[in-house]
Prior knowledge:
By secondary structure, this protein is α+β, with helices and mostly antiparallel strands. Helices cover 41% and strands 23% of the residues. The strands form three sheets. A five-stranded antiparallel beta sheet has the order 1-2-9-4-7. Strands 3-8-5-6 form a four-stranded antiparallel beta sheet. It has a three-stranded antiparallel beta sheet with strand order 10-12-11.
Amino acid sequence: MTDAGDDVEKTWCISEVDIFRDLSEAEMDAIAAAAPMKTYSAGELLHSPAQPSEVLFILKRGRVRIFRVSADGRALTCAIISPGTIFGEMALLGQRMYDNFAEALDEVTVCVMSRADVRRFLLSDARISARITEILGRRLADLEQRLSDTVFKSVPQRIATTLLTLAAENRTRVLGARSPQIALTHQQIAALAGTSRETTTKVLREFAGQGLIRLARGRIAVLDPERLKDHAG
């Protein structure tokens, strides 16, 4: 983990973040001064139950996976956090990590806010507070859907659903790409779908053989989203 705070870049972390979309430059400057930037490499943990801390992360760049580990060592993905939103341990907002881990899926840039600054800058502003409530409600609905998929969908259906979700998120991030690109390993896809890497590789090769996707090292291109939806059930 390295500090990325730089006077020129402070407001960069706050601007374009959805919950701050209509703040004035002065308001964003004040929040940026209270929320230093940090960067994490892919695979690095931002939060773990072994090192709990009450801070709120504002995700500017990259993706973060929130997951928990069962007693038998299996990982269950609870959420994939995309840029422009928040996560972390913050009881003031009803945002709890419990026994969850937060892992960087790519190189990640976050701004970090303390409890006192959350109360001062976020909860005191009705606009921001309402948007945070909306984000947390949507995240709970996503978790319920993910848990439902785990119970009722087959492994190939879960993998297809995972690919479609990631493709939708990444569609605008790879400029010049004709097909949506997913920059994740088979192991990471397996963790998101709640299955093993070996099973994931087998299913992905079957999808590739049917012309639904194209596999490359560390990257998957979705070639036929409509047919992949059929496989997602």
